[in-house]
Amino acid sequence: MGNSKERVLIVEDEHINRKILSNILASDYDVAEAENGMKALEFLDSDHSSINAILLDIIMPVMDGFQFLTALKDKSYCDIPVIVMTGETGSAYEERALNAGACDFVAKPYRPSIILSRLKNAIARSQVKYMQQIRHLAEHDPLTDLYNRAHFFDSTSKMLSEHRTSSFLMVRFDIDRFQVLNSIWGEKASNKFLIFVAQLLREVTKDIEICTYGRMETASFCFCISCDKKKLKEIVDFLIEKMANYDMNYLIEPSLGVYEVTDCAMPVETMYLCASIAVNRVREKYKDYVCFYQPSMRENLIKEQYIVDEMETALDQEQFEIYLQPKYNLQTNEPYGAEALVRWMHPVKGAIMPGVFIPIFEKNGFIGKLDVYVWEHVCRLLRQWLDKGINPAPVSVNMSRADLYNPTPIDTINALIKKYNISPDLLNLELTESTYMDNPQLMSDKIQKLRSLGFSIMLDDFGSAYSSLNMLKDIHVDYIKIDMKFLKDKGDDTRSERVLASVVRMAFL
After folding, report:
1. How many separate helices (H) and strands (E) can be counted in the chain?
2. Cα–Cα distance for residue pair 368/49, rounded to 1 Å
3. Rg of the chain in Å (alpha carbons)
4. Whole-angstrom distance, CA of residue 432 vs CA of residue 383
5. What is the C-alpha separation between 364 and 357, in angstroms, rounded?
6. Beta-strand relationship, 220-225 and 168-175
7. Which region holds residue 20: left if phi is over 0, alpha if psi is between -120 and 50, else beta?
8. Cβ(37)–Cβ(63) under 8 Å?
9. 62, 89, 65: which is closest to 11 by C-alpha?
């Protein structure tokens, strides 16, 4: 069984004084010795965790007590309590010792009861301070010093239970596209920005008497405040302005999801979940910064989760079926290939339309796997037709954003062409105009590479965005598909017809 005594380091150049002090402490403490400040630092560097307090002489060779105290401030173990031992008296001398970092002092000649009492008190204070530091670290985020997630939930729960008649707003506050900013700025600058955001949070809540706030995740914060929507708007406007001006070279914007607390007894975690659902919705809307939670959002989220839970199984069991929508040559009125569409034939729920599952797959990235699935099934079908002596027209398949950002989509689709031994001109690749808007240079590079491999590129939804004319100028595609909204009938107005004719001429200049 180990020794449970606390350990004291005596730093004293006189051997006889070290012996006297050791005898005084022997019954209550384990003792370590050092003959000057330098030796003491060497000892502490190798074994500081075992020392509970230091008895320090001031006048010593090599390194005196004041020099030791100065060096101690830069050490990881600077919180070890130091009691100065000196024969000097006077308030100026005592003040110098305390300012240098000592927690107390004892006068020579030594009085055992005084030394033991002051040691006991110094160690006790140190342990209380240590426990407070441990508790603070357990409850606060180490970077911003805001409440961490667990302590925010706990503190907010107590606040709500104490103010059941007040109205509260639970607000989740996210930094949009922070991962991009982090990759550009680097860790040090990104951390500085997060500290800046934390300070903004302190500033906007300083005049609100009843509130809590904390850092929930890397770039997610939360605050629960007793205020009305007018005050919340002032807070939002302040945050938007300050973040926009932080670095004018980058677009820095917040998204805020708000849950209006109607039942203070509801678990805080549930309130936060509702605010999180709302913040995910606001990200989908350009230049909208705030979204208030509605019960229907949770219902939609549950429906989405059902889709997510079953998507991998559906792919493994080939529940996704390929349908071919024919394309016609308007000059000959004869079929000219087809577009591959996908339907989810669920064994229990029946047919699930693309409008239900495609947006979810695009959001969570699963669309990339589904695209490859469709590519392979279309290649397999083309191979079957060729083996039967049929000369098929090209079939078009979709390439999503996820495919373009994946480092290997070109290799994947080229490998499928080789696997099924079909010509790349039988597989037309469709990309949406909105994908170009995300990253024009990336899209241009990928299109150039695909066309060099023999694939024909189709631009889908042309006319649905504001970049259409830029696209005609900057990238080379083989086909464009006019968005239906572009062709809406407006009575006798021939303006759309004239614009459409001009687009066709420009597309094939």
Report:
1. 19, 17
2. 53
3. 36
4. 27
5. 11
6. antiparallel
7. alpha
8. yes
9. 65
Per the CB < 8 A criterion, the answer to whether 257 and 291 are in contact is yes
Q: Is the pTM of this model over 0.90?
A: no
Looking at residue 309, what is its pLDDT? Answer: 92
Give the CB-side neighbour count of residue 362, counting CA atoms within 13 A. 14
DSSP string, 464-502: SSTTHHHHHHH---SEEEE-GGGG---TT--HHHHHHHH
Domains of the chain by start residue, with CATH: 6-139 (3.40.50.2300), 149-293 (3.30.70.270), 302-507 (3.20.20.450)
The phi and psi torsions of 8 (rounded to 5 degrees) equal -120, 135
- Amino acid, res. 336: Y
Contact 486, 465 (CB under 8 A): no
Query: Of 497, 462, 465, whose CA–CA distance to 477 is shortest?
Result: 462
How far apart (Å, rounded) are the C-alpha atoms in residues 94 and 74? 22
Quote the CA–CA distance of 429 and 404 in Å, as a whole number: 12
| Token pair 């919705």 in the structure block, residue | 281
pLDDT of residue 487: 61
DSSP 140-207: B-TTT-SB-HHHHHHHHHHHHHH-TTS-EEEEEEEETTHHHHHHHH-HHHHHHHHHHHHHHHHHHHTT
Of 46, 55, 53, nearest in space to 7 by CA: 53
For the chain, 509 residues long, the average pLDDT of each consecutive 10-residue run is: 78 93 93 95 93 93 93 93 81 79 88 93 92 92 95 96 92 90 91 96 91 95 90 92 89 92 91 91 72 84 85 96 91 89 94 89 87 96 96 92 76 94 94 63 82 88 58 72 64 67 70
Distance of alpha carbon 76 from alpha carbon 378, whole angstroms: 65
- Other C-beta atoms closer than 10 Å to the C-beta of 188 total 8
Q: Which DSSP letter does residue 64 get?
A: -
